[in-house]
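Researcher: Excuse me, C-alpha cells okay?
***
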Amino acid sequence: MIGRIQVEDVKRPAATRKDSAWGAGTADRPICLPKPQYTKVNGETPPYRSVRALDSLRQFPESGIRTITDLVRRSASKYGLCHAVASRTTVAIHTRTQDADVDGKSKTVELVELTGYTFTTYTKYEKLTIDLGCGLINVGLKAREDKLCIWAQTCADWLAIFHGAASRAIPIVTAYSSLGLSGIQHALTSTEASSMFVDAQGLERLDAVLTAAPLIRIVIYGGDPGASRERCDDLKAKFPTVRFLHIDELQLSGNQLPAERGGPDAEDLCAIFYTSGSTGNPKGVPLKHKHIVAAVAGWEHVLGRHLGTSDRYLSYLPLAHIMEFNLSHLALYRGACIGYGSPRTLFDATVHSCRGDFRELRPTCTVGVPAVWESVRKAVLGRIGALPASEQTGFWQALEDAKTFSYNRLPSPDSSDGRFAPARELLGGRLRWALTGGGPIAADTQEFISHVIVPLCGGFGMTETSAIAGVTDPADWRNGFGSLGSVPDCAEVKLVDEPTTGYLTSSSPPEGEIWLRSHSATDHYYNDEFETAMAFTEDGWFKTGDIGRIDARGAICIIDRKKNLVKTLNGEYIALEKIEAIYRSCTTVRNVCVYADSRRKKPIAIILPNKQAAVALVEAELLNSYGASNESDDVMMQRLVLRQLQDRARERDLPGLETVEGVILSPLEEWSPANGTMSAVGKLVRRGVLAAHQDQVDQVLAALPPV
C-alpha cells in the first residue's frame, strides 16, 4: 500500500447555534407572499410572488432596455472606461508525469502556463461587438434567417461573437464544447444552422461535424491564428464549399466596411439553448431578447446591489449553460468586470509557473456547482488536518465562534478572520459572495463555506426559465441554508399536488411540484410539440419537474426532482439527489450516484473514491488491528467506505430506507462527459453511471442478504 497513515482526528467542538438565534434580524420577515386576488384551485397553492412585485411582475431592468443589444449599448455609455472583460492567453503546455498513485500507477498530465489577465474596457468591448455583427452581415449571414452555432469553451470571444450576432438579429445556437458528434450534429441539423464559431479544440474535431452537417457554409474560429493555419488549410481542402475565417478577420471586415444598421426587436429570437441532457435527450429552448432581458431584471432586484464597477466576476462554467450566461449579463448591466477562467486552471496546483485563475484575478463574486464547493471544502479540511493539534482545535473553535456571532447578527470576531485567511486565499482572498447551483448541496458544506470563505447563496432555475426561478440574497445568506431564497421579481411560482409520491399542498408547510410563470420563460421547445405539451400549460405555466416546499417566509426549498424519486420494495419513495448531497460530503467520496433497486428496501451507492482518503482509512484500520486482518485491501476499503457513508447517514438523521446497504468503488479515473457519466455542467448522468458499472451493481446486489 502507498500512502500516509492518517493522524487521529482532533475532536471538534460541538456546534453552539441555538434555533432561537436563527429568527434574529430578517429571519421572520417574509420574502414572498401569495399573489393578491387569486382564484383558488384545489390541489394547488396560490401563486407566490416577491414582496417587491406583488402587484406586477418586472419585464425590464430599466426603461429603454428591451433587447440584449440595448443592454450592451447602455453599459458602454454608462461605464465606458471601466473594465468589461478580462482574459488570459496560453504561454505553453507542459507535460508532467505524476508519481505513482495508491494503485501503483503513474500518469502523464498536461499543465497550462498562462499569462496574467488582459483587460478590455466597456467602450472597446461594444465596438468589438458592433464590428463582429457587421462582419457577420458582410460574410453573407441574414438577420432573422441564418443561425450561428457557438461550439466553444467559455471565453471572451464566446460572449463577443454572441453579442455581435444579437446586434444584427442573428440567433445563436448553443452547444457545449464537450458535446460528441451526435450531440453537435443534433443541434446543427435540428436548427438548420448555417454557420459556426469554434475554438482551437473545436477546430481539431471539425471534420466529422462538417460531414454530418452539410448546411454549414461559414466557420469562424478563435485562438491563435498562426497555430491554426495548417489545420485550416487542411479543412479548406476537404470542405471547399465552406468558408473559414478567424474572428480577427471577421472584426476587421466589420470595421472596414460597416453594414447597414439594423438591430433586433424584443420579440426576435435571440438564442436556442440546449438542455444539458442529464435526464434525457437535450431539448432546444428558444429564448427571445425579451426573455433574457427579463431574467436580468429578475437577477437585478436580488443581486444587483451586490455588484458594481469595483467587482470582478470569475466566469468559468460553460456559457452554453443558461445560468452562467445570464449572470454574465447581470455583471455587464452592473458595470462589473467578467474575468474568464477554466475548470482546469482555477487553482495554483493545476497550472504551471503561474497562478490559478482565482488567485490571479482575485474575484469578488463567482458561481459554482456543488462538486466545486465540495472540493474546496475538502481541500481546506486537508490543510487543517495537516496542522498541529492545537492549531486544529483553534480553527474549529474559531468556526464555532464565527457561527455564534453570525447567527446573532454580530460582526465576526477578528480571531476568525485570522484563522480563515489561508482558506480564503485559495479563492483569491477577496470573494464577497458566491452562488451554488446545478443541483443540491449538503447544508453543512454550504454552512462551512459560508463561514470560512464566502457567503454561499443558493440559486434555482432551468434553461426554460432563463435560469432564474429562485435565488438567495447575499445579505440574507444566514437564512439560506437548505433553501433557495426568493422568487425573482419577474416570476411567480406555485406548488401543485404530486399525489403518487405523497407531496401535497395541503401539508404544512405545503409541498408539491413547482410550477413557474415568468416574463423570462419560454412557452415551448424548439420543433418538439410532444415535449411542449408535457411541460407547458396553455395559461403560461411551466412544470419544472422539481418537487419543493414553500416555508413560512415564502422561500423556495427543493426536495428533489420527480425523475429522481424512486420507489423501493416497501413502497416508499426516496429522494436520490438529496441523499447524494449528504454522502458526497464524506472525505472518501469524490462523487456518488445512489441506485435504488425496486427489489430492495434500501439503496446502494456507486462511489468515485478519493483514493488517498480511502487508503488512509485502510492504513488506520490495519494500524489499530496490528495488521491482523484476513481481508484484502480492496475488500477492506469497500467495507470502510460503506461504514463511513452509514456513519454520515446517522449523523444527518437519515431514515433507514435512505441509508445505503452496499457500495461500489468505481474503477474509472474520472466521471466526465467523455465517458458518459456526467453532463457538460457537472450533473450526474445516471443511466451512464449505471451502464458503466452494471456488472459491479449486479454483483453487490447478489451478495446482499435476502430481503
Observations:
- Confidence is low (pLDDT under 50) at residues 1-25.
